[in-house]
Design goal:
globular, 249 residues, alpha+beta
């Protein structure tokens, strides 16, 4: 029962991560990230006929959203919900040494990044398979007018090197761990970030793969899986990169 509840919290938190919604009981790294709220529109199995929301909140880009992964690029049973409300990234102000590690959990987990993208797009990707609850992840596209994509990845490596372990700000005895680990070699540059939340005997993982292609970052985040539950993460990163590269100049 605990396992099912935790996975449900992780899946519900995926919506908040993409959405900048209010506090959740799922996880501070998730609820603080502030990225996007999925719209009611769901990707169809044919990219050329997918109906995209024409408008959205501040930061929504219909043209960039058209380059998000589609269900026909994923195994059967996957769904893609495009976000229409996106919160800004952390901006050009890099956290200095005076900023506590606990205040940087969204940055350490790659839910937010340093820098200011010129455009963003995001979606929640989920799979119906699994005994307890669907596997849930987010895809986020960020384009930059300069070398912001390269700097964001460099900043992330630096921040994780400074704060590989962080005590939970909830003072419940839990902790977070962050690490840059070997991952697939994709695009011009790529990195994998493993994030985990430990509370008592329970461990949940929030792993990410970031891929730079030119001045764009393609990022995928899994949401609240148990250790070893990231079977789809690399496949999603590959599909997301392929979709971006084949749907634009």
């Amino acid at each position: 029962m605990l396992r099912m509840v935790l996975r449900r919290l992780g899946a519900a938190g995926a919506v908040c991560v993409v959405a900048a919604c209010g506090p959740s009981t799922a996880d501070p790294a998730d609820r603080s990230a502030g990225e996007a709220v999925p719209s009611a529109a769901e990707a169809t199995s044919t990219p050329t006929t997918r109906k995209l929301p024409a408008t959205g909140g501040a930061g929504y880009s219909a043209s960039l959203s058209a380059r998000l992964v589609t269900t026909d690029a994923l195994p059967p049973g996957f769904a893609v919900d495009i976000a229409t409300v996106l919160a800004p990234d952390a901006g050009r102000q890099r956290p200095g040494p005076e900023v506590p590690c606990a205040d940087m959990i969204p940055l350490l987990s790659a839910k937010r990044l340093t820098g200011t993208p010129s455009a963003m797009a995001a979606a929640t990707v989920s799979s119906a398979e699994g005994p307890d609850y669907p596997w849930v992840a987010n895809e986020v596209l960020r384009t930059y007018a300069d070398d912001g994509a390269r700097r964001a990845m460099a900043d992330l490596r630096t921040l994780i090197g400074r704060c590989p372990a962080v005590a939970s700000p909830r003072q419940d005895g839990g902790s977070y761990r962050f690490a840059v680990v070997p991952g697939p070699r994709l695009g011009d540059e790529s990195m994998r970030v493993d994030s985990s939340t430990i509370s008592g005997s329970t461990t949940l993982e929030w792993d990410s793969i970031l891929v730079r292609t030119g001045t764009t970052l393609v990022t995928v985040h899994e949401q609240g899986n148990e250790p070893g539950g990231d079977d789809h993460l690399t496949r999603l990163a590959e599909a997301a990169l392929r979709s971006y590269q084949t749907t634009g100049p």
